[in-house]
UniProtKB/TrEMBL annotation:
GO molecular function: ATP binding; ATP hydrolysis activity
Protein known as: ATP-binding protein
Pfam families on file: CbiA
TM stretches of this protein: none
Domain of life: Bacteria
Length: 326
């Protein structure tokens, strides 16, 4: 299952995504964790020190390798240079799976040990000084979108992505690549404004959106969120001494996380697992094609010098475990 955590900056989405990753790892589930935020904090939230986090390989810097591997022998893609972030797979493409070793993971992923469990962590890489004034962060997150377009994952396998703040993911089709999106919202007008914007943008694309109320301190906060987001409010989370200790660099054992927060994480997993039955690989592939054609016409054809619509293989649907001819 593919899960996104979104929300405005400072909402606590990185903290909650890291807690959910720890929860899954503690249960023994296979997890690929991806930091796709311009502020790269997922590594430290998973217990890495600053030096370890800074040494993580950036997906954005390894985009040529990613493209070359995923292209495989697909005859519709004449070169890795003609692949863009929305390029869909077809016959001959190589796919990524959660439980495997491959050159993309070798180059971009690093194992993180968490209370006896382990996850693969991948990061887009920070926005560097050389990027200022000449690039946008979508050039980094494009590597994530390309990988998700070529990813086949099954029940009980989890890919958790800490997304960019606000609604930046709507600059491409990245927001449609998930089985469920958790929007982390504080009980404030600013907190719920991102929810309204996200819900409006995602309305026509079948996005499963649930709100996680964070920094909820009492009944008034809870009533505010219920009034503002209605049935989309899944669960709320309050203060955590466990998280505060982690932020000081002294993380306790995960078993010591407060009972209320452990129950909240179990509710998140229940919601995630319930979306498995809603999976529609044909729609998923259709959306890939839709955004690829939009990006091709908008900038991709001019950038690459080729007609990127020719990359679409009309006889294929991305399916669990394989690319399936229909």
């Amino acid at each position: 299952m593919k899960i996104a955590f979104v929300g405005k900056g400072g909402s606590g989405k990185t903290t909650l995504s890291a807690l959910f990753i720890r929860h899954l790892a503690h249960a023994g589930a296979p997890v690929v964790a991806v930091d796709a935020d311009i502020n790269q904090h997922l590594g430290p939230a998973l217990g890495m020190n600053e030096a370890e986090a800074a040494a993580l390989p950036a997906m954005g810097d390894r985009l040529p390798l990613i493209k070359d591997y995923l292209r495989g022998s697909n005859p519709r893609i004449v070169s890795a240079e003609t692949m863009i972030k929305t390029t869909p797979p077809g016959e001959g493409s190589r796919l990524l799976r959660v439980r495997e070793d491959n050159p993309v993971y070798d180059a971009c992923a690093r194992p993180v040990e968490l209370d006896g469990g382990a996850v693969r962590l991948m990061v887009t890489g920070p926005f560097t000084e050389s990027d200022v004034g000449v690039a946008c962060y979508h050039s980094k997150t494009g590597a994530v979108e390309l990988c998700l377009n070529h990813l086949v994952d099954g029940h009980g396998e989890y890919v958790v992505v800490d997304m960019t703040a606000g609604s930046d993911s709507f600059a491409s089709g990245l927001f449609t690549r998930f089985d469920i999106t958790f929007l982390v919202a504080e009980p404030t007008r600013k907190g719920v404004s991102v929810y309204r914007q996200y819900k409006e943008y995602a309305r026509d694309f079948g996005v499963v959106l649930k709100v996680v109320g964070n920094k909820v301190q009492g009944q008034d906060d809870l009533d505010f969120l219920r009034t503002e987001v209605g049935d989309d409010l899944l669960v709320t989370v309050g203060h955590s001494d466990w998280v505060r200790a982690l932020e000081k660099g002294r993380p306790p054992r995960f078993e010591l996380l407060e009972d209320a927060n452990r129950r909240a994480l179990r509710l998140l997993q229940t919601a995630v697992d319930a979306t498995y039955e809603l999976r529609n690989w044909e729609r998923y592939t259709r959306q890939m094609v839709h955004f690829h054609l939009k990006n091709a016409a908008s900038w991709g054809n001019a950038r690459t010098g080729v007609d990127l619509a020719a990359q679409i293989d009309p006889g294929f649907v991305l399916g669990e475990g394989a690319v399936v001819r229909v």
